[in-house]
# Entry
Amino acid sequence: KQLKQSSEQIMKGRCPYCSMQCSMELIEEHIIQRKRFKVKPNKQDPTSEGRLCIKGLQAHQHAINGERVKYPLYKIDGEWVRISWDLALEMIAEQFSSLQQEYGSDSIGVYGGGSLTNEEAYLLGKFARVGLKTKYIDYNGRFCMSAAASAANATFGIDRGMTNQLTEIADAKCIILAGTNIAECQPTIMPYFRKAKKNGAFIIAIDPRETATTKFADLHIKVKPGTDANLAMGMLKVLVDEKYCDETFIAERTKGFEPVLDQVNQVSVATIAKQCGITSDEIRVAARHYGQAETGMIFTARGVEQHANGYQTVRHFLNLVLATGKIGKHACGYGAVTGQGNGQGGREHGQKADQLPGYRSIENETDRKYIADIWGVDESELPRKGVSAYELIEKIDREEIKALFLMGSNPVVSSPNAVFVEKALEKLDFLVVVDMFISETARMADLILPTTSYLEDEGTMTNLEGRVVYRHAERKAPKEVKHDWQIVCELAKSLGKDHYFTYEKVEDIFNELRQASKGGTADYFGITYDRVKNGGVFWPCPDSSHQGTLRLFEKSFHTTDGRAQFHIGHELIRSEKATKKYPLILTTGRLMEHYLTGVQTRRSQELIERSKEPFVEIHPQTALEYNIENDTLVRIESKRGSVIVKSKVTESIREDTLFAPFHWGDFQCINRVTNPALDPVCRMPEFKVSSVKISPVQPV
Ligand code: SF4
# Structure
């Protein structure tokens, strides 16, 4: 008892790792010289309802990891040298200013992340446009949410991840999970689906591989990667032919159905089944269950979205929602299952190339004027639309962008065609990375600025439901580590722009964000810190007496005429197919134990022990054909690069497909192989369809 000492600190935390934003209580005990953490889920949390997955239980481990960057680091002759904050900020200001003088404002790029808080995302967008006056800002959410976001905007006139609260799932009688492995990626969401199943729901999972989610489903459609849009079109054909469409809803609440009907009448379920590598029966069974069900919900995630057809694919699924009228009512709706911790809020407040805060458009004159007034600048000074994340890297490669300010992202591992990305970043005159760790990208930086962890960081996050929640800062940041918002404000000061960034605390930034979002589609004006500290508020929330919008589209959609827009399918892009040289299709995804590029989760002992290294799943027949044994080293190669990982021979994957997780870097980085073809609308890369070959690695 005497050994057990002294102090015990109880903290409230919010897991940083996915869009569920589960909350927890952490107890930090100090026992002599040692610290020990106990983590307990928060039973009062209205979303996670007292649940945490393995990642949440271990999240504190990265925050206390000894490898954290503790002070600014400057690289001299390949060696990191500790420097003061004053010097670091002065050097950045000098470098950026002299490059801009020589090459113009747009010679500096800014690259953000979907794990930043709403306040940080907002501030980064403002810093790029007002502090640096560059149009080149985008973020890693381009690789995450852009397809679902653009599809929802085009269909409904608004993009909120889920149109309904999670609690409504329990009453949905048919649920389609398209390209989402929620059981492993957002495990605490599963009880909502279990309740639905218990209440008689029929659950359909669409995925080229067997996962914990497909095993839970009643029907698993093991579709060929890249053919999900065809599958949705096939299902619509069945809904139309077998009269499951809601004609009143179509007539009163939508537009554009007639031309879609013409298209549907020209396709055959048998042909589509062949394209998708499945049976006609699977399409029919899925469509009938969804069509017959009184209530139903469709969820999409990166499996169907990370394609050069990502925008169209989601829109084809939304056609099913509109055709059956399953939206705007209890237990009827659509959800894009957000991946990143603030995947929703991160895309609403201006770190996207084409957006201003509140989901305003950077090309709309009224929106520009409104934001310019809030920021105290002339509208003509605001830069115009820039380019998407991958195109920004292409501009670096072409040496049009000379320096990059990067916050909360690791593009050397997360971008497609990673070998090219690494070579492009090498061309930068000056790279500044704000991170907690020396990530694969930070390693290439000239300067690293250390930032705070989720336990030290205050702010708001917007979860997958569109609920704005509060993140407590309960632990003191290490002495020379600063918050992202402080870094941005101090850098603005070094650039002589401090009068635009006069915040004393995080709440001041949020209050400006509320004003900036007022009247926009993502309207946060009625949401205050006092309100979010008590369970969260759903946007849109136009004033403080508004309770927040729990369910969207009950009476009308957010389009100018209030009607939702059907999607007329265009020719689908097939950027890569199996060829003689590259006969297999590689698809990628997440594992339960890791988050994004693993910078945080690979620094958590428990998570590494559970999932140490990457692998590639290969079907036994395919393994036999290519002479590959289980648990041996194999090389996966595309025309862009190669990677060496261990084989996992399993029947859970299609014979024509390989699957590999994307949480590792360097020679284990699967994105060295993936395909950077971009969606023409949302600029999402084709991560999920890359033609590759596989071969055993001979021992030397
Ligand atoms: Fe919750 Fe997601 Fe964190 Fe797991 S990873 S604890 S589901 S927020």
About this structure: The chain has four domains: 8-63, 73-143+342-538, 162-336, 584-696. The mean pLDDT is 95.
